[in-house]
Amino acid sequence: MTQAKSNGIMLEYERSGPADGPPILLIHGVGAQLVRWPRSFCDALAAAGFHVIRFDNRDIGLSSHMDDAPIPDIAAIMAAKARGETPALPYTLSDMAADTAGLMDALGIDSAHVIGVSLGGMVAQTLAIEHPARVRSLAILMSDSGNPDLPPSTPAALLALATPAPDPRMDEEGYLLHSIALNRALGSPAYPTPEPDLRAFATKAARRSYNPAGNTRQFAAARGGPDRRPALGRLRQPTLVIHGADDPLLTVDGGQDVARHVPGAWLLVLSGMGHDMPDELTDIFVSTISANTRRAG
Length: 297
Description:
By secondary structure, this protein is of the alpha/beta class. It is built from 11 helices and 8 strands. The protein has an 8-stranded mixed sheet, sandwiched between helices.
């Protein structure tokens, strides 16, 4: 285990690539442990000369679990948002951004290029808004702006998310089958991940850590977050937005909305990509991310 104290909690992290390379910080989505990052993606970033840092967000993986926090009522959070109220949350995107800044402090990193996926994209935006000096450039993958008027997830995606997973400690095979079905519902239709790879990843993740309450609290932070559009207009970091044209969870409208509101943002919409990072797209991910970092000088 490699951990650092950050913002009053412990964060598990891993580093790869040249130690003297420009730091690039990876922030993942709801329930996604650091092992969720595709190996091909991390290796390609390291080969491009970046010092790659990935970590478990709070409440997931081997980082601190917020066991004293309540299990949120997602329906109540969404109802409060619909009324224009600020919902009560166990923790917020701002808390998670402060965790990220604290990890950078612990590692002696003044600023970094930042990549955020899904919830991680929301945290990355919040980090750039609230801690602008820490972010050299931004790459936002399959995320959104917090605009409450964006189209919802597809019914199939919502059904897949609403289907409870068996506890892998009691029924590992049932858990694996659920994970495969969830990936098929949310993943890239043009680039389906082979089932043996899905099983291997789900087995590794379940045996490393299992904390469904953390997933729910992270989901609440994402769904209960503010509309970031006004603040996005003040960003000056070079920003790249990548989104799948076939994303059923956070539809392509979300990525387009981020790019529309960040001055000078680049937008790349990929046909056949859903809510995952297929190995087949690694080269285009890394080449466009690298080009965006060069805009930072």
